Amino acid sequence: MAEGINIAGEYSLELAEIIPVDGVPAPITGHVVQITIYEDIQNPFLSGNISFNDNTNLKDILPLIGQEMLKLKIKTPSVPGRPDEIIESLFYMHDLVNSVDINANNRLHNYKFISVEAIVSARTQICRPMRGTISSIVASIIRNDLKSKKDIYVEPSVGLYKKIATEISPTKFITDIMAEAVSEKYSSPSYMFFETLEGFHFRSLESLYSESIIQKFTSSSEGGYSPKQHGHNNVLEELSQIRKLTLHNNAADSLENSGTGSYASELITHDIFNKKISHGNNYHYFNSFDKEKHINSFHGKKQAPIHSKVAVDDNESTVADFPSMTYLLPISFSDDAKKIDAHYTDVLGNSENFTGYNPASWLTKRTSLMNNYDGIATEMIVDGNTILRAGHMVEINIPPSALTKQKDKTKPDRFHNGAFLVRNIMHIFTFKSSNGSHMMDMTCVKDCLEEPIDYINKDPEPKVFGTNKEKPKTIPV
Hints:
The protein has nine helices and 24 strands. It is 13% helix and 37% strand. The chain is globular. The longest helix has 11 residues, at 134-144. Strands 1, 2, 3, 4, 5, 6, 7, 13, 14, 21, 22, 23 and 24 form a 13-stranded mixed sheet that branches. Strands 15, 16, 17 and 18 form a four-stranded mixed sheet that branches. The chain has three domains: 12-116, Beta Barrel (Thrombin, subunit H); 120-250 and 388-423, no CATH class; 254-371, no CATH class. Mean pLDDT is 88; it is low at 221-232. It is mainly beta.
């Protein structure tokens, strides 16, 4: 049995307190029914819901008007070797979803809450020039404009930029410049900006992939939990068991992938300083794949594409040989070799040596990376713990659905096994009578396979079948 934790998913609500506009706190700790907290690497802020009973008419007495603060302190026992995990955060209650009458003297309120920084961002406009790497600019905005006192996890990016914000919210400005950031370590334009219960993150996908595996998950074809050991629950094994599983293969939508640049895209640039048009800045998924570091390469496994190289026409072309998305963008370099921005000069006309807008270094590659990083997705509900965060790495091993028919009984599912990135987590804390339960609804993703998909070098489409006739007619009507 794990020390400090007796039942998988147990937790203790230490404090739930509403601070209304008059500043006098109203404790609701003993009245909370459910709390959900949502983390997502594609969402810049934490959000959630709280449901609580109101038998003293707080809604009218305080009153509750959508401008309240919420203090939360939740303690969850952890696994051996780690201290107890404590969630201690301040949120902004911004929306009353509904109120339901329980009886004549009691109502159940359901409120949405969000990080305080989200509200600060919504009412703040930036209008000033900023200098530095994109990473340093983002860190500065979080500290100085969002006024955040939380930890910031920042991966250094390359290039010295001058960016001018013109009456724009901090979050929108970060989102706009984030795409241009290229990792100093991995040379990858795959940055994500998001908040977890640990703090804010501005990191590339490769930086997230490189982290150690936090937890392993599996499901059994027989289902259910393992028997108790020595009269106690085997908590560690319960924490690794998947209660509900839904498998997704987002990479299988070839119609969408063809039109969004997942397979290929093309960039045409017009250098307005040098009066030059450049073609051929193409991205080809298969030609680029082995030059990139995908999730498996960080965890001792081979990496193979999630798409097939099967021929799609009689010329042996693949899906990546058709750049269906084309970008046409202006650039301006005073020094084309160093990609120096021609816009910024001193009073003598000398260049200030800022990095110019250079979509060739990030645009087409980022388009494919962002479309494919969640190509394989595993959605699962598991017993909760607050060790895991969005952006962490886990290992998932799912046996094939027809395990009894497999020759190799130890072989896992071809797609849903190995290292996965936690894309999002919904922490669900439910209080019932004298105890509570913590569940997690998670989506974990990956961008590659371990073994390549077999294919043939000719188009497998039948030339004649059904309405595809050998000698079709054109019929006037």
